[in-house]
Design goal:
Strand order of the largest sheet: 1-3-2
InterPro entries: Acyl_CoA_acyltransferase
Protein name: Acetyltransferase
Strand content: 35-45%
Number of domains: 1
Helix content: 25-40%
Radius of gyration: 14 Å
Number of helices: 2
Structural class: alpha+beta
Number of strands: 3
Length: 64
């Protein structure tokens, strides 16, 4: 993740990054430990099978 930050900031001139992750898989906690913060949630928009709908979790990392 450090390399991603380095390229985003140094080579691309970005100030922040955004990602979308599947809810209910522990990814919020994983990315949270790396400095990402939840910025929104879209309930039940990801369907993995009948009766297996998950939230889409929107996260951001700023400043880089």
């Amino acid at each position: 993740m450090g390399y991603v930050r380095q390229v985003a900031r140094g080579e691309l001139g970005l100030e922040q990054l955004h990602l979308a992750a599947r809810g209910g898989a522990g990814l919020e906690e994983f990315y949270g430990r790396l400095g990402w913060r939840e910025s929104g949630r879209r309930p039940g928009v990801l369907r993995f099978g009948p009766g297996d709908d998950r939230d889409e979790v929107l996260m951001h990392l700023a400043p880089l």
